Amino acid sequence: MGRTRRGLTGWLADFGRLVMPPVCVVCHDALSRGEDFICLDCLANLPRTCIHGDGFNALHQRLAGRTPIQRTAAMFYYYTQSLYADLIHEAKYNERPSIARKLAKIYADELLKDNFFDGIDLLLPVPIHPLKKIVRGYNQTEHIAMGIHEATGIKIGDNLIVKRGHTSQTRKNAYDRWLNSRDIYMTKSPASLAGLHVLIVDDVITTGATLLACADAIHTAEPSASISVLTLGATHLR
Ligand SMILES: [Zn+2]
């Protein structure tokens, strides 16, 4: 029975590909068998930052504030006009959070080889306002954390929460973004983070205001926690 059902499923999948072949999120060419959401060419040409680790780097610069950040990592450069931006847009706005999860799994598998996750105890996705989550149906950063968890086995925590809503960041300059992000986040059960090394996870780092606000919220509530950050996308420094 199982064989028949699998066979039928496979046949339906093949038929589905024939009628509406899945295409690469980036270049929109039809995917070959074995490719999933992104074609091998686009994956090979992903504009990688190659930034990860605990050395002082361009991301550390963006996150320089009162809270020390241990390690930073970003998978690829994100430009709104780039076709690669669709990886983030589809995951965030088009009900395809599995893209974020799968990309994060690919990235985490790579970072594992460089010991990036050594000593990290907990993944903390940047939260969105509960109303926004109801409307969108999901929080894409939780799916990024799931992808990292699949690669590393590190647990996902829900200690970061939104204290109040905030207006859209997209048309604000760096200072306005910082002002807008301050005091939005707070830490639930901070004592449970005592002495832990947490990895804050977000989709894109632009000015760093959101990640800094999250880091500050953790550091203020539980100063003994160490903090690192990981994002999929990173805009270039202006
Ligand atoms: Zn492609």
What is the 3D shape?
A: globular
CATH architecture of the largest domain: 3-Layer(aba) Sandwich
In total, how many domains does the architecture comprise?
A: 2
Give the strand order of the largest sheet, numbering strands 1, 2, ... along the chain. 1-2-8-7-3-4
Whole-number average pLDDT?
88
Proportion of strand residues: 15-25%
Looking at the structure, the CATH topology of the largest domain is Rossmann fold
Integer-rounded radius of gyration: 19 Å
What string, H for helix and E for strand, traces the elements in order?
HHEHEHHEHHEEHEEHE
How many strands in all? 8
Q: Which percent bin holds the helix content? A: 25-40%
pLDDT below 50 for ≥5 consecutive residues: which ranges? none
CATH class of the largest domain: Alpha Beta
User: What bound compounds does this protein have?
Assistant: zinc ion
Number of helices: 9
The end-to-end span amounts to 60 Å
How many strands, what sense, and barrel or not for the largest sheet? 6 strands, mixed
